[in-house]
Amino acid sequence: MAQKPPRVVAELGRPETFEETAARKAEQSRKYRANKTINNLWLSLIVCVAVVIVIVLLVPRNDESQLQSIDYRSVATSAQASLPVPVAVPDLPDDWSSNAAEIRSGSDGVAYWYIGLLTPSNTFVALQQGVDANESWVADQVHDTAATSTITVDGIQWTVYDNRTTSADVGNAKYALTTTSGESTYVLLGTADDADFEKVASSISTNVTAQSATGAAAP
Q1: Which of 115, 105, 33 is nearest to 76 (CA)?
Q2: Is residue 39 over pLDDT 80?
Q3: CATH C-level class of 72-210
Q4: Can you tell me the distance from the alpha carbon of 81 to that of 205, in angstroms, rounded to the nearest whole number?
Q5: Dihedral sign (CA 199, 203, 205, 207)
Q6: Is the predicted pLDDT of residue 119 greater than 90, yes or no?
Q7: How many CB atoms lie within 10 A of CB 128?
Q8: Which residue in 7, 85, 120, 190 has the most C-beta neighbors within 10 A?
Q9: Are 176 and 187 in contact (CB under 8 A)?
Q10: What is the pLDDT of residue 215?
Q11: DSSP secondary structure string for all residues of 154-211
Q12: pLDDT above 80 (res 100)
């Protein structure tokens, strides 16, 4: 049987030499391996993304605050020995929590009792009770903002600082209430709504009225 003549390669206009055939096949093999590598990379990426999605969906998440809850009532018992006035201990429902409770020192050396309170809706109210506090201490707490109105809670008049609509940086003082009784000046400030602020104010009404000999809180 006659041997079939070599195939003419159109690009060359002649049959390939042995070396050209070997080079062409080597290049085809290289391209095949390269394409396979890219495909494998894409496949690996898809698998990794799928694993991440599964982990995100299956791992339980806790949307509640991760800060350790503080028993401010117990801390208040210890703090009382360091302050000359009865410290305020708010009586709030069990779904409220605290992330801080301590005695702090503010501007002009004013010592004050501090409790950080978290509401059931995860908003924030800070209770601050300054001893022999002056006007500059109060101004510091409310970030030098101006009073906007007053409210009365359990017969006690509180000055209101409503900064919720301001574009200025007021820190946590989006809303604040202040009142003074005897040697104690109280500042409630934070991000909670009016009802929660009034709930905190009401929970310390007995402490506020106990500060002065007459039982009346000064505005």
Answers
A1: 115
A2: no
A3: alpha beta
A4: 21
A5: negative
A6: yes
A7: 24
A8: 190
A9: yes
A10: 39
A11: TTEEEEEEE-TT--S--TTTTEEEEEEETTEEEEEEES--HHHHHHHHHHTHHHHHHT
A12: yes
CA distance linking residue 181 with residue 128, whole number of Å: 13
Q: How far apart are CA 48 and CA 51, in angstroms?
A: 5
How far apart are alpha carbons 190 and 207 in whole angstroms?
Answer: 21
Tell me if the pTM is above 0.70.
no
Is 60 exceeded by the pLDDT of residue 219?
Answer: no
At 128-158, the pLDDT tens digits run 999 999 999 999 999 999 999 999 999 999 9
Q: Which tokens hold the place of 45?
A: 């990426």
Report helix, strand or coil for 1.
coil
Question: CA-to-CA distance for 34 and 31, rounded, in angstroms?
Answer: 5
Q: Are strands 124-131 and 184-190 parallel, antiparallel or unpaired?
A: antiparallel
